[in-house]
Structure formats: C-alpha cells, structure tokens
Amino acid sequence: MKKLFFLFLFLPITVLAQEPTFKKGIPDDLDKEKIIFLEHEPIKVTAREKSKKAEKYLYERQTNHNKVLNESNQILNGAALAYPFEYAITTPSTYLALAKAGYKYVLQSSVYNYDHLTGQPTEDELTVFGYYIFDMENNIAYEVFHLDEMKVYDFKLIIKKLNKAINAAK
Questions:
Q1: Are strands 128-135 and 105-109 parallel, antiparallel or unpaired?
Q2: Which residues pair with 90 in a beta bridge?
Q3: For residues 134 and 111, what is the distance between their CA atoms, to the nearest angstrom?
Q4: Strand 21-24 relative to strand 140-148: parallel, antiparallel, unpaired?
Q5: In this structure, are residues 134 and 154 in contact, taking their beta carbons and an 8 Å threshold?
Q6: Is 0.70 topped by the overall pTM?
Q7: What is the DSSP letter of 123?
Q8: 143: Cβ contacts below 8 Å, ≥ 6 apart
Q9: Tell me, what's the pLDDT at 17?
Q10: What is the pLDDT of residues 112-139, one digit of tens each?
Q11: How far, in Å, CA of 71 to CA of 150, rounded?
Q12: Does the structure show a pLDDT above 90 at 22?
C-alpha cells in the first residue's frame, strides 16, 4: 500500500512510467547536481465555516494552510541559504520546467498533494510525511527524513534535517 501511495505521489513526474525505486540515504552526486525545493501553494477551501463541527474543523485546517503559507515560503528563502549545494525554489505545480532546465533532484513529499487537507484526520493520530530526494532522471526516490503534519511549514527544520542527512552520509 505504501508503495502504491508513493506511485501517485510521483505520477506527475514519471508520467505513468514505472514505479520509482526507493532507497534510503542521499544520492552520491547530490553535491554536483541541482535540487528543487518546493514552496507550499494555496488550496481551494472546500469546507464551509458555518457547518457541523467536523466540517468546521476541516474549514479551519484549510484556511490556516492558506494563511501560513506566505510566511512559511519566505522562511524557505532564507533557510535554503544554509543548504550547501545548488538549488532553486519553486512550486509543486511549476517545478517540471526546472527539471527540463537541468535540475536532477526535487525534495518531494506527499504533503504537497494536500490530500490531508481534504478530509478529517483519524482521531488521536498524527499524520507523518516522508521526505524524499527524487531523482527525476533515474526514477529513484531516496528516503531522507519524516515530519509530522505540525512541522511541514517549518522550512528551517526541513533544511536542517536535510543538511543533517547530508552530513551523516559523508
């Protein structure tokens, strides 16, 4: 089931190609290649504010996402400066143009699909997202770290965890 979920995560990249190969760690050539960092994008608020408790909660989650993303994305611009190699910052809906311009990797996660904001989370369960360095040329997803849904807007932490994984691989 996990691999099927990730197939859908990488579907726009692979365009119905084979399921990516999953590996742990960091690609050997990351220091020589370019990576794309993804900003958060606004979502359409589908839940109604004046509704039942469950839908009101969903409305709050969706509107909160849209409220915090500008500040979060600005923090990414500063936090990315701590990344030691070449990078670009763009959105999930526009990064494929950079892939065609020579960027080999993208730091990808299913959080950027925003499916977790379209329904109610399981009660007493925290959603955790895997972050992968996806090799767009070779269809390989390198598992780097995981973050829970409460930290996915913290780009300082994301870059810190990425850099820690890079340093651990040396």
A1: antiparallel
A2: 38
A3: 14
A4: parallel
A5: no
A6: yes
A7: T
A8: 22, 23, 24, 25, 130, 131, 132
A9: 58
A10: 999 888 887 777 788 899 999 999 999 9
A11: 15
A12: yes
